[in-house]
From TrEMBL:
The protein, known as: Aminotransferase
Cofactor: pyridoxal 5'-phosphate
CDD domains xrefs: AAT_like
Biological classification of the source: Archaea, Methanobacteriati, Methanobacteriota, Stenosarchaea group, Halobacteria
Listed GO biological process terms: amino acid metabolic process
Family listed: Belongs to the class-I pyridoxal-phosphate-dependent aminotransferase family.
GO-annotated molecular function: pyridoxal phosphate binding; transaminase activity
Domain Aminotransferase class I/classII large, residue spans: 33-375
Length: 381
């Protein structure tokens, strides 16, 4: 039989990163040593105390369903964490999800329907576009590549892009894929436009804990933003817990009620013992500080190595990515880099910004050195 698929899924393209991973897998199967700078996850193990808390929770029998929004202790601990960031939310205004990705999916599904306009700041993380398309929304994209990926110099462009027809704006600072942390003036500019045009804003703060010498402001703390901001965060990046699948969102209670229906009818809840491990994670500081310090050293190393080859990049202040300027045909550049130099990166066009490749420096210093050296030897720098 021939199945008929919905517009909802057929209008979404498979991720452009898949071609690169497929090539990497193929080369590795042939015995090649691929330096993988394409991954979006920390290369550290989950801190031991968090692993132990997960095991203890299993031993203690925390293996059944939980309340759909997540166990109260965790939502209260998240509320305390958000309060430290200056955001006021009760446990009832928080939903714990299997990863921040699920949080974003539920928010977009709850807010966006056919024809609604959603504004993205490019380059933007790959899944925003897919989520908006699946919900039937229309994308308007604001390019930040002429301003070193900073938003403040591009506020005029954002102003020109938004209108009373804009339903939702997605802000991700620190950013994947650029590592940019937006200034307070930039966020105030967002606030002014959001208030003027009555726009809901998603503040994706999944990299908030990974910054180098800057303190990113949470958008929802700005005057006028509390009732129009949905703050998303999770445990994957800061605590190196990508495979545990734990994230959350906090927002106005009516959104939580609506999105909560989606949540309960789809995933039911995040995994019970994982939520208990999350409680331990929120108490973990030293291991996070150590990982962040290592990322900062690696960032500096990559920038120095690129500088030796006269390559200038916008210096990231957070997350563990940077954008390398490459040929206009970035897909071909990335395919060539993996075939010739056996170095995997992600084409900028996957994030809406051709002409760049995203490098993830969540790799050891040795591998980073090896990767840059190979790119230079094969003429890719
Ligand atoms: C910007 C951004 N938001 C959200 C996520 C989702 O993270 P997770 O679902 O692992 O919590 C990611 C993961 O790569 C990301 O880069």
């Amino acid at each position: 039989m021939t199945m008929e698929f919905t517009d909802r899924v057929t209008r979404v393209e498979p991720s452009a990163t898949l071609a690169i991973s497929a090539l990497a897998t193929e080369l590795e199967a042939e015995g090649a040593d691929v330096v993988d700078l394409s991954v979006g996850e920390p290369d550290f193990p989950t801190p031991e105390n968090i692993v132990e808390a997960g095991k203890d929770a299993m031993d203690a029998g925390h293996t059944g369903y939980t309340t759909s929004a997540g166990i109260l202790e965790l939502r209260e601990a998240i509320a305390d964490k958000l309060a430290d960031d200056g955001l006021e939310h009760t446990a009832d205004e928080i939903i714990v999800t299997p990863g921040a990705k699920q949080a974003l999916y539920e928010i977009v599904q709850a807010l966006i329907e056919d024809g609604d306009e959603v504004v993205l700041l490019d380059p933007a993380w790959v899944s925003y576009e897919a989520m908006v398309k699946m919900a039937g929304g229309e994308l308007t994209r604001v390019d930040l590549s002429d301003s070193d990926f900073q938003l403040e110099p591009a506020l005029d462009d954002l102003e020109a892009a938004v209108s009373d027809d804009t339903e939702l704006l997605v802000v991700n600072s620190p950013s994947n894929p650029t590592g940019a942390v937006y200034s307070d003036a930039a966020l105030e500019g967002v606030r002014d436009l959001a208030v003027e045009h009555d726009i809901t804003v998603i503040s994706d703060e999944i990299y908030k804990e990974i910054t180098y010498g800057v303190e990113p402001t949470s958008l929802g703390t700005l005057e006028g933003m509390a009732d129009r901001t949905v703050t998303v965060n999770g445990f994957s990046k800061a605590y190196s817990m990508t495979g545990w699948r734990l994230g959350y969102f906090a927002g106005p209670e009516d959104l939580i009620d609506q999105a909560g229906k989606l949540h309960s009818h789809s995933v039911s809840s995040a995994v019970n013992f994982v939520q208990h491990a999350g409680l331990e994670a929120l108490e973990t500081e030293d291991a996070v500080d150590e990982m962040v310090a290592a990322f900062e050293e690696r960032r500096d190393l990559v920038i120095d190595l690129l500088d030796e080859h006269d390559v200038d990049v916008a210096v990231p202040e957070g997350a563990f990515y940077m954008m390398l300027p490459v040929d206009d045909d970035d897909q071909a550049w990335c395919e060539g880099a993996i075939e010739d130099a056996h170095v995997a990166t992600v084409p900028g066009s996957a994030f809406g910004t051709p002409g760049y490749a995203r490098i993830s420096y969540a790799a050891s210093e040795e591998r980073l050195e090896e990767g840059i050296e190979r790119l230079a030897e094969e003429g890719y720098l």
